[in-house]
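**User:** You know discrete backbone vocabularies at least as well as I do. Would you mind producing a protein record, from residues through to fold? Write it directly below this note and I will take it from there.

**Assistant:**
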Amino acid sequence: MVLLGAWLGLLVVGDVRTPVGPMNTTMTLRPSLTGGTKINVSPLGALELSSHSAPVRLDVNVDQLDPVRAQALVDHPERITGLQDEIASDVQHGTLDLAVRSCVAVVAGATALGLVVYRRPRRALAAGGLALSLLGASGGAAYATWNPDSVLEPRFSGLLSSAPSLVGDARSIVTEFDVYQKELARLVTNVTKLYDVTSTLPAYRPDPSTIRVLHVSDIHLNPASWKIIASLVEQYDINVIVDSGDTMDHGSAAENGFLDPIADLGAPYVWVRGNHDSTTTQRYLERMKNVHVLDDGRAASVAGLRFAGIGDPQYTPDRSNEQKGDPAEELAGARLASALRDQKAAGTPVDVAIAHNPVAARQTDGEVPLVLAGHIHHQEMEVMKYGTRLRIEGSTGGSGLRAVEGKHPDPIEASVLYLDRETRRLQAWDEIRLGGLGLTTAEVSRHLPKENKPGATRSPSPSGSTPAGRSSSGP
């Protein structure tokens, strides 16, 4: 009864309308099992921040752009430099007002409902006091778990799924995303830009010091994937596309025409064979211009990066051959690891290794900074025992025809990897997730390696030493 009354009080009077920079906003506290902050920018979409863990969520609705304050920024661009302080002050005042109003709302709601239920003023006041105590405890939990760095990894939806390319380049993530107030200023400034454009979102301004890699995998003959990939190449100014296999479904010669759009995607295409791709598929791609097929540890320099890869040793559609499972994958991965050591000994160390199956990819641990894989149809990222980062891509084809086998369609997934041009190390990555067959949803979330977050210490290079128990001359 107390919780119901407090919730009704928040719904009726528990919001505050306050200006934040050039925006008019409404701030509200809502009961929640997970906490966090949700910022609604109608009609563009929303973004969520894991700002705290408590049974209350902060909702911020951007109601409208104030034309007077926005025009003042346009007329006096020098005010942008002080915008973060202004916004921080606006948020502080708004949050204080919201806290006071929320206390009044939960006490009034719980007391009023208690009076209706119990018809005794003393018990009604006790209900109000209990509601105030619960709100105070929730506020204390939110304060104790407050994470200002959550703004570094927002989750976008709707048209704001383009926001990561608007927030800034990968180098800015490392050097400028160091304090919460500055990030809030950049966020509101970019929302202002979005409102200032009538037909299209602002163009992404690429940083020439950052190499952008679009990682796709497991397309499985989905023709919609090519348009999605082409759009991502243009939107993110992609330097190179990496396909970690299973582009086909059966690997037959009749399917080869499906590959023709690769020539017009607008970026070099690096490919390794998956267990649904045949040698016929591989030979067809090898004849295409701007396609780099990697197999048996073969290496190639593309867009400022050194890649090496190996095709999947198994071919699933061919039922005449016995599938040898993980041992075959481990052997293929060992051959790739040996090739990586040979490249390093020759003075041409590899920056990114590629294998279709994660079992094979794991054999390269300690031999290369980054290895890419697919096969399992969902996204994962981990740093392995000897320092190599393994990135597993989801299905950029939404699992192809398999999308209709389950109760819910599989999502279409891809990633944009940002690598520093000088060190050729991963600086950040955007996970892109689109609704599967028949759905029209879009989400993008930006992530940073732990060593690139503010205040973190740099981890040693995985290629700086040979993993214990391994020979430097062979697999």
User: Anything to note?
Assistant: The mean pLDDT is 77.
